[in-house]
Structures are given as structure tokens and as C-alpha cells.
Amino acid sequence: MNVVQRGLRSIIRKPVKSILLLLVVVVISSFFMAGLAGQSASIKTQDATRQAVGATFRLEGNEANRHKRLDEAAKKISEGEDGTYNGVIFKHFADGSSMVKTDNSFETIKPEDAEKIAQVDGIEEYNLITVSTVVNPVNFKRIEDSDVDQSNDLGGVNIRGNRIMEMDMDVSAGKIEIVDGRMIQENETNVCVISEELAQFNQITLGAELQFNNVKDKENSRIYSAKVVGIYKTTQKIKPVMSGDSYRSENTIFTDLHFPEKASGEEGNPLFQYAIFRVDDVRAYDRIKAEIEKADIDWERYDLIDSDGNIKSMAENFNDMEKMSKMLLVLVSAASFLILVLIFLFWMKNRTQEIGILMALGESKKRIWLQFLTEALLIGSIGFVLSLGVSPLLSNATASYLARQTQEQAAADAGSVSTDYVAPELTIQDTEISITGNMVAIDAGVIAGLLAFSVTIAGITIMRKKPKEILSEMS
Amino acid sequence: MPEKYDEKTILEVRKVNYHYKANRDKKILDNISYCFEEENVYAILGPSGSGKTTFLSLLAGLDVPVTGKILYKGEDIQKEGLNHHRKENVSLVFQSYNLIDYLTPKENVMLGGKENPEKLLAAVGISEGDWNRKILQLSGGQQQRVAIARALASPAKVLLADEPTGNLDEEIAEEIIEILRKSAHDLGKCVIVVTHSKAVADAADMVIKINSGKIEEIKNF
Ligand SMILES: Nc1ncnc2c1ncn2[C@@H]1O[C@H](COP(=O)(O)OP(=O)(O)OP(=O)(O)O)[C@@H](O)[C@H]1O
Ligand SMILES: [Mg+2]
User: Fold this and answer.
1) Cellular component per GO (chain A) (predicted)?
2) Minimal Cα distance from A14: which residue of B?
3) Which of A36, B3, B50, B95 is most buried, with most CB under 10 Å away?
4) pLDDT tens across A387-405, in order?
């Protein structure tokens, strides 16, 4: 009878000790797996959170560069003369006063620059956003607060053009929800989406043509009309860019990309305030950033801003979560080791007689150890397989618990950071933990290692003794 | 010693001293020398606590003398290793607790040797219905007989037994003695039996008395 045959008989015919070990292995393996899952969940959640927050880059004008260009223009246009240089206009008046004006071409983000960045590998889609442009509502009335002094206000509404409305900052931040109709798609012209308040106030329904013209020349400027294709409601208040009712949230109208320039009398001369680039794979965020910075554009003119919400502060939380998972793994391993050693000491104690008999029959200590190891590993593998059934539940529970903790923390941190950009609600679509082959392999390896190590440690107590000593302990 | 004597000697005790570590002052074996021969049954007698079991365990290679040697066929048993000695040269029956409880009687016998476990079990009086039962469902006497069958199953030349008939009926005990005699005389084994039993001592070819660390050989006639 070989070691395995004997081991099998011992497992089956002395089931109590086997079941004890089996249960312990199931528990250990499940907890260990949960720890592993927690670790992988931390990475997954990190990605998911980034995605939810919207892993994007934002391109905007650099303020220092703007001043530099202004100074440059001032130098080019010799003092005391009128002139135009690179979108800067100087005018001198008879009374000695002077004026410096910039036009849209001076202020705008150049679409061709945005286009170059959009070509970078890893950029999924991009958006251009015009400046909030105040225009005059011709065939409808804006919403006004009669208590507020409107003397400094232009008396218009503000319109904002997007290349892709869905990617507008307020829209993607979830502050706006379409309640009727739809958003504006790429390449549409002369369409708009208005607030439900404005629609109600003016009895406007989908399909209506709204008319706008230049707010500075309400009487004579050309009127442009845009068809209402959607009505939105605000779920979070949109912060007005300036005071005055022209900019109030209800008077904000989303349009196609080129409508604002037309309605403000600047057709062909757009003013894009932001370009936003969406990253297709958040894990490649840093690589893509490096790629973007290589793009052949005048980088001095722009700032590239990481619009990844508050990933920095989140990253710390995720690191904590990873640490927690690691600690769980270490604790589980250490506790398991102790428990297993105790179990095997109990085995050895209970099996002194058997050990003595086998030794008297000339069985080597090595082979006796091998039999215990075989039994432990056989039971261990059954326990391990059983734990594969249990651990997904436990892993999911652990992982989503850890994820929730981390997110709450991240959200709390985000709230305390003051930025224009408000992170959207952090919802994790998928904390479902898939137990990967890799995890199973690690778990199996660790369980086998723990079993072998603890059988050996427990075995030392017996194996150090002489057979005679063991036999005298028998009776 | 005569040459013929040497040839038949299978197990030799040479100038063996033994005391337990726990009690160094009490000499269990005091400079003992003796030669055990093939084809003989030896009975070891002595008062309780005189060192019979200790002596047997030294012969079995379960323990080592403090000084002196045990030789198997002229060679120190420590040379090939005590494991090897226990596995190949001797088979053992303890005073009690001989069997592995998760193995059946038949499987226990097969630990000694694979051939004819049924025949051996039948020979020591275990009926067929008990061959595959649980060990703990057997009586003490039955367990002892299974242990004897296991020792008999072993091809080893030396059979060591510590009070094998201690808790057996006289009738069965006689049968066991007869089996032991046969394995000595017919199979050429050297059978060494520790016993209190007069019947066993009478059946032995040689009687050895242990007392106060010394042994004394008494030939049987
Ligand atoms: N492990 C031990 N440590 C210390 N002393 C021991 C040990 N085993 C036995 N002894 C002592 O050694 C002496 C001989 O013991 P042993 O078991 O050899 O006697 P025995 O002749 O077999 O007795 P019995 O007829 O009762 O079986 C006894 O005095 C006993 O107390
Ligand atoms: Mg004894």
C-alpha cells in the first residue's frame, strides 16, 4: 500500500479530522481570494472611477502668453498710430485717449490645433466649446429677475456652441438632463437646446424657430434663427460665468458650434474657449498626455489641463484600499498559518499511535510526512475547489465594500477641492469582480504552500522523536 | 565459540548497556551479550519492569544502546540504518495498540507483507466476516491476532513479539504458539517472544531470564 492509498483511506475513514481541515481551507482560501479580489478591484474601480469622472484633457488659452502677444502687438504697431496686428486693434482718439481691442482670432483656440491633438493615438473624440456669447433674443423673452439691477447687463441670453453637445462640460458633468427632444449632434447647423424654464415662459415647443441677433445692435443687425431640437433641465445649478441675467442658468442656450459667431455678427470668426479631448482608455492617460505634448502646435499659447476630476486625491484613497487589501492578505496568511499549524499538531497528537506503528514497520519519517502532506493537499484541493464557489460572493462583497469606502472618501475629498469643474456623481457601474485565472493560481499556490509549511512545522515535533519514545507515548 | 554456532546466528547483542535518560542510575541492561539463532523460538522472561520491552525494542531497532552494538548477520544494524532494519530484517508485535485504525484487518496484515493475508488471518483464528471490518470493532484479542498475522506476513527473518498471547484464551494461545514454532522450525525464522506465560516458555527452544540488567540463558529440554 503506497502513501497515497493510505492517505486516501485515512481521509475517508476518519472523516471528522478531514472535514475540519476542509472547512478551514475553504474559509482561508475564500478570504485570501477576497483579498486578491480587493486588490484587483481597487485597480478596476480606479479605472471605472476615472471613466465615470471623465478622463479628458482640456485645452485652454494661456494667460501669460496672451499678455505676451498683446505686448508684442503693441511693439509692432509703433506708438501713437492706429493699426491691427495679429488680432489686436489699436485706436487713438483726438482727445489723446486710446483703445486696445482684441478680436476673436486673438482669443480663440485654433480649431486646427485642436484637430492636431485629436489625431493623437488614444484620443477617442474631441469637442470645441465656444465662449458663452450674449445675444439678443428676437422672437422670445428671456427670464429676468425684476429685483436685480440690470443696468450693467446687456439684456440678452447667452448661447454656447459645442462641436458635440454631449461633451459640453456641464452636460458631461451631469448637470443637465434632456427632458424633451435630443442633444445637438456633430455637424448640425442652426439648432438649439433650451431650458425648460425658458420653454415654459415663452410657450416654446420642439421645432420652434428661435431668432437671435447681435445684442449690441438690436435694431439693425441680421437675424439668425435656430430650431429648437431639445429642452433640458438642470440637475445641478450651472454657475453663471458672469453676473447679470444674460448669463443666468435658465437663459443658457446650447447651440451648434458655429451659431454663436453668426448670431453675434462675427460669422467666420469663431471664439472657442475650450477644446476637450476624451481618452479612450483611462489606463493610458499618462502615455496619451505625453503624446499630446508632442503635437506640433504653439504650446505657449495654451494650457493643457488634466480634466480627470480629482484623480490625484482619489489615487491616494485607492492606494489606501490597495494597502488594506494587502494587509488583509498578510493577516489572512498569518492567521491561516497559525490555525493550520494547530490543526496539524492536533492531527499528529491524535495519530501518534499510527506514526509509531508505521515507524516500527520500517516506514521512514520522510514517507510518513509525505502521507500527511498528501492528505493535507488532497483535502486542500477539495477545499480550494469548494472555495471557488464561495469566494466570488465573498470577493464581491469585500471588493464593493472597499470600493464604496474609497469612493465615499474620494467624493468627500472632491467636495473640499474648489474648482470650476465639479466631478459627476461617482457611480461605479461594475464592481463585479471576476476571479481571474491568475488569482486562482496565486490562491492555489499560497494554500498549497501554507499546507506544506504547516504540516512540516507540526511534523517536526513528532519527527524529532525516536520511535521508542513515540511508542511509549502510545500506551 | 564453535563455527556452526556462528553460522546460525542471525541477531547478535554485543556488550550492550542501556539506561533511560530520565533515570541514568538505573541500568536496564548491564553489559549484555547474546546470540540469537535461526530456526529457534526464544522466550524472554522476567519480572515486570525488568527491561523485557526495552530489550526487545533495541533488537527491533526502535532505540539504540547507550554503548555496545546489535548486529544482524554480523553487521551493525546502524550501518544500513534502523529504518532498513525494521523494514527488512525484523517484524514486530507490540504488547498492545498494534493496528492502524483506519485500515481493515486485511489491510493491516498487508502492511507486513502482501502475500496471503486471508490465509494468515484464518490461521490466527480471525473468521472471514471480520477481515474487512473496522479495527475498533474487534476485541483486544482479535486485534492482537491480526497483529501476529501481520508479523507472520513479513518476509523478515526475525519475529519479535511482546506478550503476544497476553490477552488470549488458552486454546487460541496454544494455536498461536504452534504457528510461531512452525515459522521458526519450518520457515527458518528466529522468533523472540517476551512472555509471562508458562505455556509459551515451555514451547520455546530457549528461555532467557532478565533480571537486574543481566540475562541468564536456560536451555529447554
Ligand atoms: N521511556 C521511559 N523512560 C524512562 N524509564 C522507562 C521508560 N520506559 C520504561 N522505563 C523504565 O524502564 C524499566 C523497564 O521497562 P520495560 O518496559 O522494559 O519493562 P518490562 O520488563 O517490559 O515490564 P512489563 O513486564 O511490565 O512489560 C522500568 O522500570 C520502566 O519504568
Ligand atoms: Mg513490557
Assistant:
1) plasma membrane
2) B102
3) A36
4) 988 877 777 777 667 666 6
Which chain A residue has the Cα nearest residue B110? Answer: A1
Residues listed for chain A: 475
Do A345 and A465 belong to one domain? yes
Judge whether A86 lies within some domain.
no
From residue A38, how far is each of A73, A97, A412, A432 by CA, in Å?
58, 69, 21, 11
> Is the pTM for the entire model greater than 0.90?
no
Instruction: From first to last of the 221 residues of chain B, give the pLDDT tens digit.
Output: 444 446 789 999 999 999 998 888 899 999 999 999 999 999 999 999 999 999 999 999 999 999 999 999 999 999 999 999 999 999 999 888 789 999 999 999 999 988 889 999 998 889 999 999 999 899 888 898 999 999 999 999 999 999 988 878 888 888 889 999 999 999 899 999 999 888 899 999 999 999 999 998 887 65
- Compare CB distances from B102 to A13, A359, A467 and report the shortest one's residue: A13
- Ranges of residues in chain A with a pLDDT under 50 are 414-431
Q: Tell which of A254, A285, A309 closes a domain.
A: A309
The CA–CA distances, whole Å, from A33 to A24, A26, A403, A409, B97 equal 14, 10, 16, 25, 43
In a domain, A95, yes or no: no
Q: Are residues A169 and A281 in the same domain?
A: yes
Sign for the CA dihedral angle at B123, B125, B128, B131 comes to: negative
CATH number of B39-61+82-219: 3.40.50.300
In whole angstroms, what is the distance from residue A228 CA to residue A207 CA?
5
What whole-number distance in Å separates Cα of residue A285 and Cα of residue A306?
9
Report pLDDT for B64: 93
Q: Provide, as residue numbers in chain B, all residues whose Cβ is less than 8 Å from the Cβ of A354.
A: 100-102
A73 within domain boundaries: no
Residue A66 lies in a domain: no
- Contact at CB, B88 and A362, closer than 8 angstroms: yes
Domain of A213 in residue numbering reads as 110-309
- Same structural domain, A35 and A114: no
**Atom 11 of ligand 1 has which residue's CA nearest to it?**
B49
**Pocket-forming residues, ligand 1, beta carbon under 6 Å:** A 472; B 20, 22-23, 28, 46, 48-54
Residue A101 backbone phi and psi in degrees, to 5: -125, 150
Q: Looking at the structure, do residues A406 and A459 belong to the same domain, yes or no?
A: yes
